[in-house]
Design brief:
Blueprint: E1 2-5, H1 9-21, E2 27-31, H2 34-44, E3 48-51, H3 60-67, E4 75-80, H4 85-94, E5 98-101, H5 106-117, H6 125-138, H7 150-160, H8 165-172, H9 176-190, H10 195-200
Parallel strand pairs: 1-2, 1-3, 3-4, 4-5
Helix pairs in contact: 2-3, 3-4, 7-9, 8-9
Length: 217
């Protein structure tokens, strides 16, 4: 189930149509602003929420920051025209799990909704490159997360690479409940509340062991 927070009625109608026409998807609600979303979105209990940033009044980033703590199982996917690093990382640290540009084609958007629902962190390729460059630029002054066990560090590395929870389980040879337990402990130790916040604290460091890629049969 998907909800939309978008103040352009035309765009909202198109997105809702794409979702409702796709097999296995359903648009359960649409909101034109932050206030109405804050008031009623928790009642809709969507699995994924598409959020525009440039909403009338308060921004979509503020909306995600308010809703994520009370809807921890809901995944927030930004869908916006903004391509600058400030908006990208503000959204991720607020609790968003993915970041797409509005020019994203229909099939890619639907695939991204499915991916974020399964625990991934979809991003438009251009945005993903900006994220990688940002991590590379910030690598020197950043401190390595302390207090994580070796297994938790492996899980965090895979989260930062955009792996879905099932892919993490397959890669490390552990069960899904074990993955969820590791992620819960990572959040506690890093004092974060979302995948985006955890990933924003993480960058590969020289000498870190490499995590094997998922092998699909």
């Amino acid at each position: 189930m998907v909800s939309i927070i978008e103040d352009d009625p035309g765009v909202c109608k198109i997105l809702a149509g794409w979702i409702d026409q796709a097999k296995g998807f359903r648009c359960v609600s649409q909101y034109g602003g932050v206030e109405s979303a804050l008031a009623h979105l928790t009642e809709d209990r969507p699995d994924v929420v598409l959020v525009d940033i440039n909403l009338s009044g308060q921004s979509g980033i503020h909306c995600v920051r308010q809703l994520k703590p009370v809807m921890p199982k809901t995944q927030f996917l930004m869908l916006t025209v903004y391509e600058d690093s400030d908006h990208i990382f503000d959204a991720l640290t607020a609790g968003a799990s993915g970041y797409l540009l509005k020019r994203t084609p229909r099939e890619e958007l639907l695939a991204s909704i499915k991916q974020v629902y399964e625990g991934g962190s979809p991003m438009t390729s251009y945005i993903a490159r900006k994220v990688v460059r940002w991590f590379q630029q910030e690598q020197s002054p950043r401190q390595k997360p302390e207090g994580l066990s070796p297994r938790e560090s492996e899980v965090l590395r895979l989260l930062a690479r955009g792996y879905a929870y099932k892919e993490i389980a397959d890669t490390l040879g552990i069960s899904m409940p074990t993955v969820n337990t590791h992620i819960h402990r990572i959040y506690q130790k890093l004092h974060v509340r979302s995948r985006g916040e955890a990933v924003a604290l993480f960058a590969p460091f020289p000498g870190d062991p490499q995590v094997p890629a998922v092998r699909h049969s």
